[in-house]
Amino acid sequence: xxxxxxxxxxxxxxxxxxxxxxxxxxxxxxxxxxxxxxxxxxxxxxxxxxxxxxxxxxxxxxxxxxxxxxxxxxxxxxxxxxxxxxxxxxxxxxxxxxxxxxxxxxxxxxxxxxxxxxxxxxxxxxxxxxxxxxxxxxxxxxxxxxxxxxxxxxxxxxxxxxxxxxxxxxxxxxxxxxxxxxxxxxxxxxxxxxxxxxxxxxxxxxxxxxxxxxxxxxxxxxxxxxxxxxxxxxxxxxxxxxxxxxxxxxxxxxxxxxxxxxxxxxxxxxxxxxxxxxxxxxxxxxxxxxxxxxxxxxxxxxxxxxxxxxxxxxxxxxxxxxxxxxxxxxxxxxxxxxxxxxxxxxxxxxxxxxxxxxxxxxxxxxxxxxxxxxxxxxxxxxxxxxxxxxxxxxxxxxxxxxxxxxxxxxxxxxxxxxxxxxxxxxxxxxxxxxxxxxxxxxxxxxxxxxxxxxxxxxxxxxxxxxxxxxxxxxxxxxxxxxxxxxxxxxxxxxxxxxxxxxxxxxxxxxxxxxxxxxxxxxxxxxxxxxxxxxxxxx
Length: 538
Prior knowledge:
Elements: E1 5-7, E2 10-11, H1 40-45, E3 65-74, H2 80-89, E4 94-97, E5 109-113, H3 122-133, H4 140-164, E6 168-170, H5 172-176, E7 181-182, E8 185-186, E9 189-194, H6 201-215, E10 218-220, E11 225-230, E12 236-243, E13 246-258, H7 267-273, H8 290-297, E14 308-312, E15 327-329, H9 344-347, E16 359-364, H10 368-371, H11 382-385, E17 406-409, H12 412-419, H13 424-440, E18 461-467, E19 469-474, E20 484-486, E21 492-498, H14 519-536
Parallel strand pairs: 3-4, 3-13, 4-10, 13-21
Antiparallel strand pairs: 1-2, 5-9, 6-9, 7-8, 11-12, 12-13, 14-19, 15-16, 16-18, 17-18, 20-21
């Protein structure tokens, strides 16, 4: 298959089609034995060099029904729903398969680059920033797919969301005000939220999927895909799914797009790839790595790097204050990091123990609005903070009431009790020590810059008790710049594409970077828009 052109500014394919830059293909299909510190269950499960969850089942040959389509998309989420609509609008006959009874997605914010408002060199500066944030493990051409197509894609999705009656808020200023200049280049963004909360991207995808059905996209809910169909050459020709009356073969004349999400609820895969997450709670359900397994059975290979962990808590308190370098303490009341060097995206790395389980608290006093001037993020005034405080009566807007977890008190002892800290005396001593450092203007304990050292002396005192949870593992199969799934030799498997969290090589870093807020959903929406249209036009 030849590479397809997206925009004159950036042509996909070429060298990238020969293999993924920076990704070794050796051992990717039959991974070597895990290191000694891997979970014992996973180590014992490895047999003859083959991981149990990737043992290929016998091909299914008995079908209760056969259906013919141009494009079949697996997974009705943030990537799959846009892919199905994009392919349909390009003239293809499309089937969208979903194992759940409804479309499923999470989160709120998606982000994009507006090319016309960005200085020459600005797009590549953002691509380099993302690559650096990912420890230089991401494939540059994959990031470019998002960078050069995202503005068009998200404006397209906004228009569709408007037609579908979605709740959407332009959040460009809220999320991108701190990244308008990257390495001296001016960059223009467009970001929006499906919201405000409790409405989220899942609600948005459900509303858009309903609209898509009304336009003619055929969606098969409660129809889980179980295998990919292949011809004698290994090309993927369709999808086998479970229907009420038996197995259904969905033929795909132009291609299959897999958009099934992550594997955080597959205990075996998590034990092998992410053993350090054993004490971090998983926010989602039924994310069992179906797409990754089907694609490996068809000849694909998991990317060598373990998945990027998306860990955060935007709901206990204002998300715009999550990266503010207030004093942070564990549940035992002790300080544990240089808060100016440890944004929320990496906080979970300090809190993996059975005792910690992802819990920590941001602590500040009633001077916080003045103290936080010029800090990253946006501080909400006390009247707006009330929505995040379960003890304050009144209507709670823009929040999930079951998750809000912010408290205030007139004494540190009372605050510690409200927060449920296990050692309130230690907490009081931690604040006392922090105040001493603030008055010196020298952080002798952690080295935080003096401009972020603000004493905690003026009541009422505040604590945002955040609980880091795992939202997603972004870890999938190797793909090229056209999102074609690659085999063990780095060659594309004809007819097979992967997008969203089951596709590899976009991040590759241990932790999902939040420098560009909404990048994960922006990437998923953009890949769906670009790949759906491209496969339909084959």
